[in-house]
Design goal:
39% of the residues lie in helices and 14% in strands. It has helices at residues 20-30, 46-55, 71-84, 112-133, 160-179, 205-215, 224-235; strands spanning 8-11, 34-39, 62-65, 90-93, 141-147, 184-191, 246-249. Strands 3-2-1-4-5-6-7 form a seven-stranded parallel β-sheet, sandwiched between helices. The protein is globular, with a radius of gyration of 17 Å. The protein starts with 7 loop residues before the first strand and ends in a 9-residue tail after the last strand. The model has no long low-confidence stretch (mean pLDDT 94). Belongs to the short-chain dehydrogenases/reductases (SDR) family. FabI subfamily.
Length: 258
């Protein structure tokens, strides 16, 4: 029943084979979606080479650089999508960043620069990309982003990223309200802690994972593929009545009090 054949899906945020975005891309491809992939450009082209080799088995028909701190690159990305695909059905937003100094120690010590950068990349970029995608989602669409429990509860060392995720979740609701009349749905997945390039910057991430494995109802954490399955559901007609929601994919950890 879960069939994304004929759907054009843009996936952002793939860095390596541990990325949650990579798990999502694989499951969308498995469901039949036509993939487009963006990568973060760097001066030496290392990210481009790494991501291109990784996604090659998924045969993306669009592969473009997109730094969300560069308005021109965002515009070029969606212009290319319009020219090549004509329409966009699915947007996967897996973008988050905070400087390592902002992910440990006292939250009150976060610098203005680190605070601004974290919210620009991790929160505002969803609004940017959704606004650029809106004119291309002529037949409706689904936008899915990634959040974490630290956006609603205090998690040691998550610090400024918790503020960013709280803003991201509220952005999901405002975007869902705005885009709903266009039959565009906007949802978030709150995934349990997974060892990724991004999470490695959070102090004590391994302790966090072990704690979830001990406390979560399923007595484990989750995999990239499980998050990918949830994303495929949210992008499919099976979730046609779901928008503005945060779906927890965390082995049940969120329900526990202790």
């Amino acid at each position: 029943m879960l069939n994304l054949t004929g759907k054009n899906a843009l996936v952002t945020g793939i860095a390596n084979n541990r990325s949650i975005a990579w798990g999502i891309a694989q499951q969308l491809h498995k469901a039949g979606a036509n993939l487009g992939v963006t990568y973060l450009p760097d001066e030496k082209g290392r990210f481009e080479k790494k991501v291109k080799e990784l996604v090659e088995p998924l045969a993306p028909s669009i592969f473009l650089p997109c730094n969300v701190q560069d308005d021109a690159q965002i515009a070029a990305t969606f212009e290319a999508i319009g020219q090549q695909w004509g329409k966009l059905d699915i947007l996967i937003h897996c973008l988050a960043f905070a400087g390592k100094d902002a992910l440990s120690g006292d939250f009150s010590n976060v610098s203005r620069a680190d605070f601004t950068q974290a919210l620009e990349i991790s929160t505002y970029s969803l609004t940017q990309l959704a606004g650029a995608a809106k004119p291309l989602m002529t037949e409706g669409g689904s936008i899915v982003t990634l959040t974490y429990l630290g956006g609603v509860k205090v998690i040691p060392n998550y610090n400024v990223m918790g503020i960013a995720k709280a803003g991201l979740e509220m952005s999901v609701r405002y975007l869902a309200a705005e885009l709903g009349p266009n039959n565009i749905r906007v949802n978030a997945i709150s995934a349990g802690p997974i060892r990724t390039l991004a999470s490695s910057a959070v102090g004590g991430i391994l302790d966090m994972i072990h704690h979830v494995e001990e406390v979560a109802p399923l007595r484990r954490t989750v995999t990239q593929m499980e998050v990918g399955n949830a994303a495929a559901f949210l992008c499919s007609d099976l979730s046609s009545g779901v928008t503005g929601q945060v779906l927890y994919v965390d082995a049940g950890y969120e329900i526990m009090g202790m």
